[in-house]
Amino acid sequence: MSVSCCCRNLGKTIKKAIPSHHLHLRSLGGSLYRRRIQSSSMETDLKSTFLNVYSVLKSDLLHDPSFEFTNESRLWVDRMLDYNVRGGKLNRGLSVVDSFKLLKQGNDLTEQEVFLSCALGWCIEWLQAYFLVLDDIMDNSVTRRGQPCWFRVPQVGMVAINDGILLRNHIHRILKKHFRDKPYYVDLVDLFNEVELQTACGQMIDLITTFEGEKDLAKYSLSIHRRIVQYKTAYYSFYLPVACALLMAGENLENHIDVKNVLVDMGIYFQVQDDYLDCFADPETLGKIGTDIEDFKCSWLVVKALERCSEEQTKILYENYGKPDPSNVAKVKDLYKELDLEGVFMDYESKSYEKLTGAIEGHQSKAIQAVLKSFLAKIYKRQK
């Protein structure tokens, strides 16, 4: 089914999400209607429209002609997608639509543009789900988004590994179905493949920095932390949504290396926030129980602690970091408080915001400035 056919099918769901008096209908060749979505409605109803597109994409995948589904297998994939793809904050996916809208500089999006930008946003959410399902297994995590990790759900277990592979393959089924006729299709495929590789390499660095049985905090530094974060988080969480919007807008990504650099720096700031929240945030607010200390992660907090510790404090850190016993974890957290790492983080956050704001305002394009400012506003002083 073509994009335009999907747009027609989506008409009813978008009409539910956006009141009819906000839609301007016009005929195109007597067969295809495009609805112009006004800015106020776009902001108010973007998430509901985004979720409606998810339903269309999921239905496509559950009826993919490449596989003969049984009722049991279709129900499994249906449940797996709702549990892992749909259940997040959706910030990465929604950012594609937001960014594309800002790049259009006030021009209303057609229904097809809304659908395609939402579809690309969902590809990123699928990618996120794929990474998280496997990451939770590797980290032996307990909860994700306020509920048990997928592999901990009864009857799932290690089937979750194959589910992760399915999630990864779904991305390219979506791209092929809805973007194959677009001039930027090859660039999109290359972009997703490259970012997936970068993220997997970042995960590899994170996992092998210190092998089990060879734990050595002396190997941890700010440069190692930055390298892990740049590849594991920044490219797919920050650069990818904007790159998707730029491709949809007809831009050549090679002309926007400066934008990539700002977004990577933003992604590093985001991960430092994540490291801070893993230790200091309320698990109910955060939606997960932090395990960076138990998992011997190369966290920004432990790196900063190593910089500030006295000889006695360093000994406490070495004796307790990376051990699962709650008493060991408590000693590390007490040391973090003693070193005032909360204050150190607040100072870092303030300086990072100032630096990023300066870089953004120095960009010559007001549209791209707006995109980057939108990203920064979403994460500055976040609590989860």
From TrEMBL:
Coiled coil: none annotated. GO terms for molecular function: (2E,6E)-farnesyl diphosphate synthase activity; dimethylallyltranstransferase activity; metal ion binding. It comes from Arabidopsis suecica (Swedish thale-cress). This is Polyprenyl synthetase. Pathway: Isoprenoid biosynthesis; geranyl diphosphate biosynthesis; geranyl diphosphate from dimethylallyl diphosphate and isopentenyl diphosphate: step 1/1; Isoprenoid biosynthesis; farnesyl diphosphate biosynthesis; farnesyl diphosphate from geranyl diphosphate and isopentenyl diphosphate: step 1/1. InterPro entries: FPS1-like, Polyprenyl_synt, Polyprenyl_synt_CS. GO terms for cellular component: cytoplasm. It comes from the Eukaryota. Belongs to the FPP/GGPP synthase family. The keyword Lipid metabolism applies. One of its GO terms (biological process) is farnesyl diphosphate biosynthetic process. Keywords: Cholesterol biosynthesis, Cholesterol metabolism, Isoprene biosynthesis, Lipid biosynthesis, Lipid metabolism, Magnesium, Metal-binding, Steroid biosynthesis, Steroid metabolism, Sterol biosynthesis, Sterol metabolism, Transferase. The lineage of its organism: Eukaryota, Viridiplantae, Streptophyta, Embryophyta, Tracheophyta. Its cofactor is Mg(2+). Catalyzes the sequential condensation of isopentenyl pyrophosphate with the allylic pyrophosphates, dimethylallyl pyrophosphate, and then with the resultant geranylpyrophosphate to the ultimate product farnesyl pyrophosphate. Pfam families: polyprenyl_synt.
